[in-house]
Amino acid sequence: MEEPLADSVRGALSSAVANSEPPIPEFPDTPSRLAYLHWLTEKNEQLRRYKSELQTRTEFLQTIWYEARRAGLDVHMVLGLVQVESAFRKFAVSAVGARGYMQIMPFWSRLIGDGDPAKLFHMQTNLRFGCVILRHYLDRENGNLFMALGRYNGSRGREEYPKAVLIAARKWGYSGG
């Protein structure tokens, strides 16, 4: 459901989705890099049932890792959300017109993007929009993930969707509430 946004919020969200492609991850030390590579290998295997090609899985995981961290979100929770929203299908379209991995409604491309909803099928664009939007809803809900997930899905206050996302997220390694 489209909600009116204050000009300052619209500007901040637009700026958040407009930044350039993600850089190659940099790590402060070898243990951090090794932990990331271990995570990437483990999740790559877990994602195999949804995406058969290794390079596609790796690019998807690198991008979701970057975009989730960039937005201050737990990557496992975002993986759970993507699983529930689209079952990891890049070209998924819902009955109400939501698009891509994170099922972004086309009005968001008008509100905070360049107005081209076709770009919502681009992997990084879709993941960036979804993470930025979820971060926005978390901020609006004062960190309440249950309410933010409901707002993301348009079912605020109902438990089915947030529960489904949290169940899926735990299978990816999410340990939060």
Could you list some keywords that capture this structure?
177 residues, mainly alpha, 59% helix
What do these coordinates show?
This protein is mostly helical and 177 residues long. It has one domain (27-172): Lysozyme. 59% of the residues lie in helices and 0% in strands. It has eight helices and no strands. α4 (75-86) packs across α8 (160-172). The relative contact order is 0.14.
- The total beta strand count reads 0
Shape: globular
Please give the CATH class: Mainly Alpha
The CATH architecture: Orthogonal Bundle
Main β-sheet, in a few words?
none
Provide the domain count: 1
- Radius of gyration, in angstroms, nearest whole number: 16 Å
Which consecutive residue ranges, at least 5 long each, have pLDDT under 50?
A: none
- Quote the beta fraction: under 5%
Order of helices and strands: HHHHHHHH
Percent in helix: 55-70%
CATH topology: Lysozyme
| Global mean pLDDT | 90
How many separate helices? 8
Topology:
Layout (H helix, E strand, L loop, with lengths): L6 H12 L11 H18 L6 H17 L4 H12 L20 H6 L10 H18 L4 H9 L6 H13 L5
Helix pairs in contact: 2-3, 3-6, 4-8, 6-7, 7-8
